[in-house]
Structure formats: structure tokens, C-alpha cells
Amino acid sequence: MEFKSLISSGKLSKVIPVSKINEIANQIEKFLLDQQESQRISQKYYLVKDKLDRITYISNIEEIINISNLNNYFDGMLSEIVRYPDKFFLATSEMHIRWPYCEEIPPHQDNFYHCFQDINSFKILIPISKYELPNAFLNYAKIEVFQKTLNHTASSTPAFSSYIPKDIISNLNLKWINYKFSLGDILWHSINSIHYAKQNLSKNKSVFLVFRFDHVDSKIDENSLKEYNKVFEKHKTLTNLSL
């Protein structure tokens, strides 16, 4: 087993200096104010906006922040999460922005989207905003790290194409964890973690960066990919999305 923990999610405290988090926050704010730059990024990467034309998701942030400045911190994080850090590499870097009164994030497992045969990949979340209630940051199901991938259906929530239907969730009798964090802490979860978030009912937006680390031997399950593509086509219809 690659993971050190038997639980599919966790928190690491005081991993990144707060000064570095504030520096990243300033870079993000500068980007959000630059409409020309956001338009350029939207032509290169998957960028989602809400009904008020506010950016809620970007699939690649390497041109927005200097990710190389985080590499030294990633090394320490991986050593805490997995037994053999040298077998993992940074695959993707994303940003989520949850504006006040945004839509809920439906319960889902990331591997339904990514379609890996194994479930050794995991994600590191770096909060750029302070934890506050009723912000409703992510809630994680208290499940084993190798939870199987459940059936999902098409979602109408932009940037979250699929979700686990209520009848499946309710039959699992899940217990949920909401990690309280300080700036500089990070959260992580395996790609088969079940997680969701309620509306952000605070007055402030919540920003977090998501970095996916894949195992060097990870392979795509072609049947799972075909199933996901079918669901994603339905999601595009539900959200009037064109790519």
C-alpha cells in the first residue's frame, strides 16, 4: 500500500509559511482583476464562470502563480502522505473559487473523473483563504483510502461534471469530517475519497489550489473512461457547456 494512512483524507499543519500563502493570494487577486489575462487563459485552459461572470474554476494555474516556489514544500508533504514519494509526480494544478452563495459541490469521487485503474493518485489542497463559518469548506467521508469507485450521474454544477446519487450515498451510512485549518495548513485526499461542500454562506470568497499527484505506474481504465465521457456529454447539455 502506497499511503501511510488508512483513511482517505487528512490534514498537515504549518506546512507552508503564511507569507508564501499571502504572496500567492496577491497573485490570484491581480489575475482576477485583469480581464484581458483571464480571457487569454480561458483560450488555453478549461475556465468556468458563474452566472455573475465570476471565475470559479481554472484547470491549469501554472501561468497564474509560480508553482516552482512550492516544490520544496511538496517534497515534505509527499513524505507525510505516501511511503515512496519518489514514485509520484505532479500531474495537474487547479484553482477553485467559491464565491458567497455559490452552488454546492455535489458528493463525488475524483477517480470517476480521472478513470485510473489503481487508486494510488491523490490530491493536495492548499487553502488561500482563512477558514470561517458558514463558509462550508469541503466535507470528507470517513472511509478507507481504497474505497471503490461508485456509480456517478451527470451533474448540473459547473466544474463538477458528475456526482454520486442520493440513494447510493444514503445507503453508505457515512460519517463526515470537516477539517478546521489555519493558513499554511494543507488538506489531502485520495482520488477515491468521497467529498462535498455546501454553499458558501459567508461574506467572503473561498479560494483553494488543488494539485494532483499521480503514481509513475498509473494507467487509465478505458472502460471507465468511456463511461465518464458519456456522463460528461450529459453534463455539457445540462450546463450548456461548449468546449
Task: Report on this structure.
The mean pLDDT is 94. The chain has helices at residues 18-33, 35-42, 71-81, 110-114, 166-170, 222-239; strands at 9-12, 47-49, 55-58, 88-98, 105-108, 122-127, 139-141, 153-157, 160-163, 176-177, 186-190, 195-197, 206-215. The radius of gyration is 17 Å and the shape is globular. By secondary structure, the chain is an alpha+beta fold. It is 26% helix and 26% strand. It contains six helices and 13 strands. The chain has a domain at 9-101 and 116-141 and 176-219: q2cbj1_9rhob like domain (Jelly Rolls, Sandwich), CATH 2.60.120.
Key words describing this protein structure:
243 residues, seven-stranded antiparallel β-sheet, 6 helices
Structural class: alpha+beta
> What is the general shape?
globular
The end-to-end distance, rounded to whole angstroms, is: 38 Å
Q: State the name of the first-level CATH class of the domain at 9-101 and 116-141 and 176-219.
A: Mainly Beta
User: Total number of helical segments?
Assistant: 6
Quaternary structure type: single chain
Q: Strand-and-helix sequence, N→C? A: EHHEEHEEHEEEEHEEEEH
| Major beta-sheet overview | 7 strands, antiparallel
CATH fold name of the domain at 9-101 and 116-141 and 176-219: Jelly Rolls
What's the name of the CATH homologous superfamily of the domain at 9-101 and 116-141 and 176-219? q2cbj1_9rhob like domain
